[in-house]
Specification:
The protein is an alpha/beta fold. The chain is built from 11 helices and 12 strands. It has one domain: NAD(P)-binding Rossmann-like Domain (Rossmann fold). 37% of the residues lie in helices and 16% in strands. The chain is globular. The chain binds nicotinamide-adenine-dinucleotide.
Length: 333
């Protein structure tokens, strides 16, 4: 029987560090790990333009340890990694557009810090397990669909190049030094706690920001580009499995969804669910140059290794996300 869930009590009393734990995915992961009785240390730099938000941690604020430090700070890392069993690396400069405007910051956070983290892990007496969040952006413009892990890697922007380098550091340290590493390549992830207050991250967070500011959503071009989407609970489930399943060590896996949509379809869905207004505008030049066209993933590999598959469809996930922001939007805008 293939495992689709984590073993009961596997995370109980495990010491887990989540880098980027106040951000969208990291905070949702922290909440799940606390439910599983793990000892969670959230590390986050809380730099204003990124996705960190202390309200994200509100349900568990008294149950986690919080350390406001920057993953670039080489002096704090040895202290943070003491007696740890698992590290989740979700800290990152995630904006494609910011990576083009400020490539050096992207390099420092997404590459240099990652090598530094790995080197610190090497110095530890026991081998701690690392789960690294990579991105589908590293494939660049798909040469075929759905995109599997064997697809050529031709990133179209600085962020994609740096995330690709980072996942290579992680897999190299696994091969050479036997550090137990699992890499997940995430596709568009959405849900409660995503950062919606600026227009620097993915198109869905930007659209949510517009909807809750009573502004029109802007659909670039004809809106015909295809995308797949994972609701946050499916991604958290994959992260938990990656923290436990030993067969996955040293491997790279796509996440994704079997159902894909055009951006126009997504706008129509949001119109139906929350009366979103939208307009078509020309593709802004700076974004057009780094757009990847149509993309959706083949996630057979992770399904074969672990039984994972996405359980939440887009309409259901969007409804839950809308309900969350209707309730808590003042903490996010
Ligand atoms: N959300 C998606 O659709 C998506 C898709 C593909 C890949 N990913 C990857 O998943 C990871 C998490 O993304 P997210 O959507 O939760 O983003 P997010 O911006 O909400 O979270 C990232 C967190 O990292 C923190 N951070 C940034 N720089 C830091 C630094 N130097 N030191 C310490 N903390 C720092 C931020 O404050 C933020 O809390 C990222 O690595 C991203 O590349 C996300």
């Amino acid at each position: 029987m293939k495992k689709t869930k984590t073993t009961k009590n596997y995370f109980k009393n495990k010491n887990i560090v989540i880098f980027g734990g106040a951000g969208f995915i990291g905070s949702n992961l922290a909440i799940e790990l606390v439910k599983k009785s793990a000892n969670v240390l959230v590390v986050d730099s809380m730099i204003d333009i990124y996705g960190g938000n202390l309200f994200n941690l509100q349900p568990i604020i008294k149950k986690v340890k919080l350390n406001f430090s920057d993953i670039r700070d080489i002096y704090t890392l040895p202290f943070l990694l003491k007696n740890v069993d698992i590290i989740y690396v979700l800290a990152g400069q995630v904006s494609h557009i910011l990576s083009m405007d400020d490539p050096i910051t992207d390099l420092d956070i997404n590459c240099k810090s990652q090598i530094n983290l790995l080197q610190n892990c090497l110095k530890l007496s026991k081998k701690l397990r690392i789960v690294f969040a990579s991105t589908r952006q590293i494939y660049g413009k798909p040469q075929y669909l759905p995109v599997d892990e064997k697809h050529p890697l031709e990133p179209v922007d600085i962020n994609g190049i740096h995330k690709l380098a980072a996942e290579k550091y992680y897999t190299l340290f696994n091969k050479i030094y036997d550090i137990p590493v699992v890499v997940l390549r995430l596709t568009n992830t959405y849900g409660e706690r995503m950062m919606i207050r600026n227009n620097k991250q993915g198109f869905l967070p930007i659209w949510f920001g517009k909807i809750f500011n009573n502004e029109k959503i802007q659909v670039f071009g004809s809106g015909s580009q295809l995308r797949d989407f994972n609701y946050i609970s499916d991604v958290i489930n994959a992260l938990l499995i990656a923290g436990e399943n030993d067969k996955m060590i040293g491997e790279i896996f796509n996440l994704g969804h079997h159902k894909y949509y055009s951006l126009f379809d997504v706008a129509e869905l949001l119109k139906k669910l929350v009366n979103a207004k939208f307009e078509f505008i020309d593709f802004p030049e700076n974004l057009k140059k780094i757009d990847i066209g149509d993309y959706y993933s083949d996630y057979k590999k992770i399904r074969e290794f672990s039984g994972w598959f996405p359980r939440v469809n887009l309409e259901e996930g969007l409804k839950k996300t809308i309900d969350y922001y209707l309730k808590y939007k003042k903490y996010y805008l």
